Amino acid sequence: MENNTLVLDTMAKNQICQLIEGTGLDVSTLIKQIIKENETYRNRIEDMSKDLKSYKERELEALLIGDALYDGIYVIDKTGIITAVNKAFIEMTGIVESEILGQGLEWLIERKLVTESGLLVLKEKEKASSVTVINNQKIVITASPIFNELGELTQVLTIMRDVTGLRKLQDKLENSEKLTKKYVDELKYLRKRESAQSGLIGRSLSMSQVRQLIYQVAQVEVTVLITGETGVGKEVVANDIYKNSLRKDSPYIKVNCAAIPENLLESELFGYEKGAFTGAQNKDKLGLFEIANSGTILLDEIGEMPFNLQSKILRVLQEKEITRIGGFKPIKIDVRVIAATNQNLEEQVSKGMFRQDLYYRLNVVPIQIPPLRSRLEDIPLLVNHFLHKYNEKYKVNKYINNSAMEVLQQYDWPGNVRELGNIIERLIIVINEPVIDSDHIVKIVDNEKLAAVCFDKNNLTLKEAVSILERQMIMNALQTYGSTHKAAPSLGVSQPTVLRKAKELGIMAK
To answer: Sign (positive/negative) of CA torsion 169, 174, 179, 184?
Structure first.
């Protein structure tokens, strides 16, 4: 055995020597060349190993990203073998990963889990799409070819998207849009109907003239001054002007000049710059004129406007600009001004309490609202309006009989429509009977003239007349003597009788 090995080694050495002689190189040089080639080969092996490792890392990263997607993903190689799937694909098909990998695409097609899009891409080398149903889910399949650097198709990436939820979402969105359109149409209709209806109630000639004037000035960009006693409905008229104007879809700001303290009114109307004065917020503040820009502003109780601010209001009307407190740069604004007051501004001007030039600027179109006592024929309409309003508010069903209505038409109504509304609301609350009669009115309204009128009415019953007379006499006695004890002798009855009668008639007494 050893002799045979020796023979073989000798033969190998001879062959190597023959090869070396054939190259013309000495042994040392040849060995160096072999070592160098081995190093080059080893470096190439290491580079290939790094590339393979990087590819594996990218593949793993791609699979992790794929698992984070809701869309199902599977990959086939150029022979149609499934090489990778993500979690969403497994959830869609219900087949475990180990059972899928290594299978041919036909295996999935036979089970109707995918379409032939992938095979079509292998054949045509172009993107293909199709639609199928898997487990009652509508699936859109998109297969895309992947090429290497040489332009050779190596893989096909297929994405499966469940559009069932999207379709349901789309249906919900369409229904929501239809519902929104319905609400918008209803809102437009209600706005249109509200605009068409005046807030003013009354058929008297004076109110018809006011209503006609409202419609005339509403469409014209002109300053309006609304005047009238407290409670006649000045704000209602201003609202009607706004609702019928070209600015009805723009801001509408209401300012009660008498309700805001004088030292705050300027900053509320015109705003201020950051840090303009002690106590100012550390930021700019918009004034109400700026907030109302492009719209309408109602300056209610304009007669209460401080004299030093009237010049600034005049500037708004003349120059169409304001300057904030602490600011120097004028700010252009486009605001329609409606003013209202229960005072006689001409008298205010003559007393030096109101600027004459501002009065002329405000009084371009004056609207004078008549007091309720001058249009008593409107009272039944107003009463029915308030009855409906407060019956609905307090969930009751009360009404006023003819005798009570006639009594209401004899009252002076110094508080005008506002007072009438308050009286009707009070009657609805405190009267426990379904029918409100004249006796109830007398108990609520403390007015000698009203009592006298009620007493003179031919349609009063004896009980109603006695109640009116008793109430008036007891009230006069209490006002004169101050207590039921002192009033009783003057009335010729005992103190308990006065106290009982006062309670029955709704008179506060002690």
So the answer is: positive
- Same domain? For 234 and 330 the reply is yes
Q: What does the pLDDT look like over 168-208, one tens digit per residue?
A: 777 777 777 777 777 776 666 555 555 445 578 888 888 99
Predicted local confidence at residue 368, as pLDDT: 95
Q: How far is CA 318 from CA 307, 357, 362, in A?
A: 17, 11, 11
Indicate the SS3 state at residue 132: strand
Q: What 3-state DSSP class applies to 368?
A: strand
Residue 230: give the domain boundaries: 205-370
User: Is residue 495's pLDDT more than 70?
Assistant: yes
What is the number of other CB atoms lying within 10 angstroms of the CB of residue 428?
18
Tell me the mean pLDDT in the region 477-489: 80
For the chain, give the mean pLDDT.
Answer: 80
Number of domains in the chain: 4
Long-range residue pairs from 2-10, CB within 8 A, at least 24 positions apart, any chain: none
Given the DSSP bridges, would you call strands 399-400 and 252-256 parallel, antiparallel or unpaired?
Answer: unpaired
- C-beta of residue 72 within 8 angstroms of C-beta of residue 160: yes
Q: What is the distance between the alpha carbons of residues 442 and 422, in angstroms, rounded to a whole number?
A: 15
**CATH number of the domain encompassing residue 235:** 3.40.50.300
